[in-house]
Amino acid sequence: MTTAKDIMHTGATWIPAHETLDRAAQLMREHKVGALPISASGEKDRMIGILTDRDIVLGCVAMGHDPSKMTAGDLAQGTPRWIDSEAGVEMVLEEMQTHHIRRLPVVEDKMLIGMISEADLAQHLTAEQIAGWAEKVYARG
């Protein structure tokens, strides 16, 4: 059985809730990623959300806010979703489809060990699986 750990990319980087959005953008550039899990300040292993490059643009820049003054925590909303490293691909797809999310943190022994993105799915799934996933994730509610 193919698991979440098999298809994820490793090296997911946390951003503490108190860090500014300009620092978040720098980390995204350095690590060549479009999303960072947000950790509770002082608690690196407790995820309170995920910050995407799109969040920074729409939630800060487009609103006329200063990314050097807004923090990652300011944009953390909702309940963060994640998947256990041993979960099968079908569970990964179900979690992403059900919650209409494009990136999914992978956890092992309560620690973040990687992230699954659309690119990871494209590399590891069949065309049929990808089409079904995209149809559900991008469907309008």
Brief overview, please?
With 141 residues, the chain is α/β, with parallel strands linked by helices.
State the main characteristics:
alpha/beta, 7 helices, three-stranded mixed β-sheet, 141 residues, 7 strands
Structure commentary:
The model has no long low-confidence stretch (mean pLDDT 89). This protein has a 4-stranded mixed β-sheet with strand order 1-7-6-5. A 3-stranded mixed β-sheet has the order 2-3-4. It starts with a helix and ends with a helix. It is globular and about 45 Å long. It has 7 helices and 7 strands; from the N terminus they run H-E-E-H-E-E-H-H-E-H-E-E-H-H. The longest helix is centred in the first third of the chain and has 11 residues. Strand 5, helix 5 and strand 6 form a beta-alpha-beta unit. Helix 5 packs parallel to helix 7. The protein is of the alpha/beta class and 141 residues long.
Strand content: 15-25%
Major sheet: 4 strands, mixed
Strand order of the largest sheet: 1-7-6-5
Summed up, the helix count is 7
Which structural class should the secondary elements be placed in? alpha/beta
SSE blueprint and pairings:
Elements: H1 4-7, E1 9-10, E2 15-16, H2 21-31, E3 35-40, E4 43-52, H3 53-59, H4 72-75, E5 83-84, H5 89-98, E6 104-108, E7 111-116, H6 118-124, H7 127-137
Parallel strand pairs: 2-3, 5-6
Antiparallel strand pairs: 1-7, 3-4, 6-7
Helix pairs in contact: 5-7
